[in-house]
Amino acid sequence: MRFRPLAPRTLRWRPVEGEGLEHLDLRPVTGGIMASAAVIGERGGVPYGARYLILCDESWRVVEFGVSGTDGRGLLMRSPEPGRWLDSQNRPLPAFDGCLDIDLAATPFTNTLPIRRLGLGPDQGTVELAMVYVPFDSLEPLVDRQRYTALRDGELYRYEAADRSFTADLPLDADGLVLDYPGLFRRV
Questions:
Q1: CA within 20 to 30 Å of 145's CA: 6, 83, 125, 160, which one?
Q2: Neighbours of 145 (CB within 10 A)
Q3: What is the pTM of this model?
Q4: DSSP-derived secondary structure letter, 51
Q5: Among residues 53, 43, 159, 152, which one has the least CA distance to residue 108?
Q6: Are 31 and 61 in contact (CB under 8 A)?
Q7: What is d(CA 172, CA 116) in angstroms, rounded to the nearest whole number?
Q8: How do the domains of the chain map onto residue ranges?
Q9: Angstrom distance (rounded) from CA 136 to CA 87
Q10: How do residues 14-28 score in pLDDT, each as one tens digit?
Q11: Which InterPro entries does this chain map to (predicted)?
Q12: Where are the alpha helices (DSSP H) in 18-124?
């Protein structure tokens, strides 16, 4: 087992530059995992405040997530079956077919989702994934391709944008949660 079974946790991350804070409550629930967080910060000099809720099944596959900004904007997406997404009105979102994971721009937590779901070891090489990526400035999701590689089993994973525009080696704790996201976030 690469990571220990999840127990209820409360975590906080702070951005490396600028102001901000994320407060995350993570806990097992019947049939899966629930993550609930409040995030404040700024991106490109523009401040934001938001809450998010992510529900995963027992294998860490996202089945539903919602993001709501303090400005009243919001996004809700559900995945009733792997790789298929619906909007808040249960309308299909075919643009996201094949995406199993999500990446919320303002948190290092969503890196844990594919890492835990895949259970990658160093002998398995690099895996490329299509993600539902949600920038917090617009809350308009788009598909983003990302790569993950286990460098040290259960301890260090490489995240890489598929276009090679960004790479980060992510040290993890025993639950697979990011300790330090070089240049972006640090666990408080």
A1: 6
A2: 14
A3: 0.96
A4: E
A5: 159
A6: no
A7: 11
A8: 9-187
A9: 17
A10: 999 889 999 999 999
A11: Glycolipid-bd_prot_put
A12: 112-118
